[in-house]
Amino acid sequence: MLSDIEISRNASLKPIFEIGSNLGINPDELIPYGRTKAKIPLNYLNPEKQKQSNLILVTAITPNKAGVGKTVTSVGLSLGLNHIGKKAIVALREPSLGPCFGMKGGAAGGGYAQVLPMEDINLHFTGDFHAITSANNMIAALLDNYQFNNEHTENALSQILWRRVLDVNDRSLRFMVSGLGGASNGIPRETGFDITPASEIMALLCLSENLEDLEARIDRIVLGYTATKSPFTVKDLGVGPAIAVLLKDAILPNLVQTTENTPAIIHGGPFANIAHGCNSIIATKMAMSLADYVVTESGFGSDLGAEKFLDIKCRYAGISPKATVIVASLQAIKLHGGASEKTMKEADMNALKNGLKNLERHVGNILEFHQSPVVSINKYGFDTEEELQYLQNWCKEKGVKTAVNECFVKGGAGAADLARAVVETVENNPSKEINFVYDLNDSVEEKIEKIVKRVYKGDGIKMDVKAQTRLKRIIANGWDKLPVCIAKTQYSFSDDIDNGSTPDGFVVNIEDLVINAGAGFIVAVAGNIMRMPGLPKDPQANRIKLIQGQIDGLS
Fold this sequence. Notes:
Layout lengths: L3 H7 L5 H7 L8 E2 L5 E2 L7 H6 L1 E7 L9 H14 L4 E5 L4 H5 L7 E2 L2 E4 L1 H5 L5 H22 L7 E4 L3 E3 L9 E3 L10 E3 L1 E3 L4 H8 L3 H10 L1 E5 L4 E3 H4 L2 H7 L7 E5 L4 E4 L14 H10 L2 E5 L4 H16 L5 E6 L1 H7 L12 H20 L4 E6 L6 H13 L3 E5 L1 H4 L5 H13 L15 H13 L3 E4 L1 H12 L7 E4 L19 E10 L4 E6 L18 E3 L2 E3 L3
Parallel strand pairs: 3-16, 3-17, 4-15, 4-16, 8-11, 17-18, 18-19, 20-22, 21-23
Antiparallel strand pairs: 1-2, 2-14, 5-6, 6-14, 7-12, 9-10, 12-13, 14-15, 22-23, 24-25
């Protein structure tokens, strides 16, 4: 089989104006970024059509080194839906340069289920990440300038929270001192860099409904605290409108196409183990305004991604999935069940049976939200029919629809069975109104504890002294009615990967509470979560190069 990038190069892409025209978008209103990419103006958002569209969420079992192919499934399902005669769009996040040049090499799907042009999407694309980086760092520069000019006055801030960002994996930037070199070069202080997807600007852009909402959210960002311990915001700094100007194009969703020339909307990219891990509300609602079926994904498994998608994004946006696809593969399940990386491709019924505990917990989570699950079994060439049949029978006994998915090697035709299972679920057993894990009027501790008990299946929480101190400040400033976004490892239902992927009888330790007043949620930090990743010993950058003018090494 050809590599991802070879399949991408061999695909015959249609002009983006033709893709837009098929959706009913006037070519004169599309904002082109070359021949195959464009931004969609916000006037195509249509609330009435959104009510009639069928939103499909794609989540997965707990990730491990085997991988399950969640983005491949999302793209493939949209292909499959179009293949069986439905009008479908896939709506995804934008990849980050850091992971692309680090571990992943790309995040545009794979095989014959990709969004294209893959190289552009994985690299600079339409400049959204650069705009977010610039907006974040412009605030930092303006804040430092304010502090410099108010030093030794009653207006000086006693604490600065805002950090700079770059879209790279660079552990050397996590902690640093700025303002060195004498008085004319600023005020020395400890600070650091986060990666761009961890910026609150990224999170709030993805939760904004329009430009006015974007500017209001920017104004609410808490930058630090005054000498009287009052929060100091972007509005206090007086630069919100200027920052919104930097994001006037970035807020527009991006239109591209798939390997089978079906439309794809890609916009935003907050990390799921730090922020809410979904593409933008605008992108999802734009897709729902233009298609009968919209496939979108959340980050990682149901504990991190789906919970935040439902409890945060859907709550703010007023939308709800009609069905939720849980992606799994035999080798990933067996790895959860005790198989090793060397043996996970081999037949091992015991490991499969043991690993089903993880899938069962994710299925239970989706049902707990009153959503309708469909299990997608991503098939590999080394999978045995006996194990595939066992997994299908297991799902049937649990009353859960399932389908074998071969979109990676067969494109839309390989996802047709999955598409039919999804359509049947939507038409005959659609999800009910979301049963949110918590109520916004619950206390912050109650919200976190409900997530831990209901979603992670843990025994409870323990709040460190630092978190308790932050909680007092959150309550004092009236932020305690915001949703909660838990930042933890994606590799376990607990906050400790050493507990295993599907542990019982654990307590989640909340080390810190971070207020993202602009984005509109409280980040509960559980465990050691890096906001600036590092590079592996052998980064993917070692393989990315130009060969006769064509990019190689992305996948």
